[in-house]
Design goal:
The chain is mainly beta. It contains three helices and ten strands. The chain starts with a helix and ends in a 15-residue tail after the last strand. This is PITH domain-containing protein At3g04780.
Length: 177
């Protein structure tokens, strides 16, 4: 299998991880209560361009997303407007109970600087090796495109696979003797 074929195979096996989010544990710090996390993350809401997750006191947002099973995270889609959409996004794998006071104490698993194409829906491919056994994901939106006080996020979608997923067709049957 060539490198191109294996990269394509990885792409094909990536699914939207929406069904594996543990909704009871999802948190978002500094969200405007009238424009909450559900607007950007929940099915249906995140497809509605009129709904946004908005920051409240300043431009920063700290989002915690636990999963119902261990996942491998491949890429993330974060949509927003050209002015108020997120710019610098730091991602932390399996870091619980982070707050604005300690978010800078930990090195992020990956950092993305979102381009206008990303804000329109182009996925940001992550450092895949850093996201192999993810039980929870913390997303720290540090700033936005224009430096304004309010950050607006129209959609967040996580793409990857569950760790338990094994392609049974790809396994050779072992004969018992």
């Amino acid at each position: 299998m060539s490198a191109v074929e294996s990269a394509t195979a990885i792409q094909r096996s990536q699914a939207d991880l929406l069904d594996f989010i543990d909704w009871s544990g999802v948190e978002c710090l500094n969200q405007n209560s009238n424009h909450s996390m559900a607007n950007a993350l929940k099915q249906g809401y995140r497809e509605d361009e009129g709904l946004n997750l908005e920051s409240d006191a300043d431009e920063q947002l700290l989002i915690y997303i636990p999963f119902t099973q261990v996942i491998k995270l491949h890429s993330i889609v974060i949509k927003g407007s050209e002015e108020e959409g997120p710019k610098t996004v730091k991602l932390f794998s399996n870091k619980e109970h982070m707050g604005f006071s300690n978010v800078n104490d930990f090195p992020p698993s990956d950092t993305a600087v979102l381009s206008p194409d990303n804000l329109k829906g182009k996925p940001t491919v992550l450092k895949y090796v850093k996201f192999q056994n993810v039980r929870s994901l913390t997303i720290f939106i540090e700033d936005n495109q224009s430096g304004s006080e309010i950050t607006k996020v129209q959609k967040i979608a996580l793409h990857g696979s569950t760790v338990e997923t094994t392609d049974m067709k790809g396994l050779k049957k072992i004969e018992e003797h």
